[in-house]
Amino acid sequence: MSIATTGETIREHEAAHFGALAADWWDPKGSSAMLHRLNPVRLAFLRDCLDTHWPDKADSRKPLAGKGALDVGCGAGLLAEPLARLGATVTGVDAAAENIAAAQDHASGAGLAIDYRAGELSAQGLGTFDLVCAMEVIEHVADKAAFVATLARHLPPGGLMVLSTPNRTARSRLVMVELAERTGMIPRGTHHWDDFVTPDELDDLLGSAGLVMHAPQGIAYSPMKGLHLSDDLALNYLVSATKA
Q1: Which of 40, 70, 184, 201 to pair with 2, CA 20 to 30 A apart?
Q2: Distance separating alpha carbons of residues 181 and 162, to the nearest angstrom
Q3: Sign (positive/negative) of CA torsion 231, 236, 241, 244?
Q4: Which H/E stretch holds residue 110?
Q5: In this structure, is residue 178 part of a structural domain?
Q6: CA of 225: how far to CAs of 189, 213, 222, 229, 230, in Å?
Q7: CATH code of residue 139
């Protein structure tokens, strides 16, 4: 996988695509319904990572109390709000201004103080965070190496990074692009299979940014369980990473 960089990560057409969905983002039966189904799975993985990384907080209802969390590609706040409820001081960054407006409105209604910002992460002038998350984001950026390097600059020694992304396999093309988008389960144009990232490629990207990737865990689907954590990485997977 090439790791040459251009520096810019936002694709304007991707930002426009997701910005057009902003008003519907919090509707669990709307265009973001799949994200609502996916979010509990992501949060279960995240909580396991938090408990492993900060074991002294494993029994706490607010394991992120006193810690800062950065949610990159935050959309309208589906992950940022739970992070705040876990005790974190949260900053959310997204490419689409429409998403940030929707996120601010929803957080205000929920009584949550979250610092939301629109635009390139590298242009925000932010410092480091104990936790850095980028869920279902890297497959949408223009320069993956630059994106991961920017994430790494916001992670201090002792911090934790958590990422999720679709795997580039024949099954993910069939299920996540051909089936899900053609049947309306996911809005048309959401996924571009050639941009999916394999675990080995992500390991290389993280390693080049001075990070160590820990064992990936898959997100699988079955009629009985729905979306669930699995050893099967063929569709989608999550990883944690720390400074080398």
Answers
A1: 70
A2: 26
A3: positive
A4: helix 97-110
A5: yes
A6: 27, 28, 5, 10, 11
A7: 3.40.50.150
Q: Is 120 helix (H, G, I), strand (E, B) or coil?
A: coil
For residue 179, being part of any structural domain is answered with yes
Place of tokens 């799975």: 41
Position 243, amino acid: K
Name the residue range of residue 206's domain.
Answer: 12-243
Buried (b) or exposed (e) across 164-181, using 16+ Cβ within 10 A? bbbbbbeebbebbbeebe
Rounded Cα distance, 42 and 25, in Å: 17
Report if residue 98 sits inside a domain: yes
Instruction: Give the Cβ contact number of residue 128 at 10 Å.
Output: 14
Q: What is the pLDDT along the chain (244 residues), one digit of tens a residue?
A: 333 344 578 888 888 888 888 889 999 999 888 899 999 999 999 999 999 999 999 999 999 999 999 999 999 999 999 999 999 999 999 999 999 999 999 999 999 999 999 999 999 999 999 999 999 999 999 999 999 999 999 999 999 999 999 999 999 999 988 887 877 778 888 888 999 999 999 999 999 999 999 999 999 988 899 999 999 999 999 999 999 8
Locate the DSSP E strands across 156-213. 160-166, 211-213
Overall number of domains in the chain = 1
**DSSP conformation letters of 29-56:** TSTTHHHHHHHHHHHHHHHHHHHHHSGG
The residue whose two tokens read 């692009």 is 177
* 80 assigned to some structural domain: yes
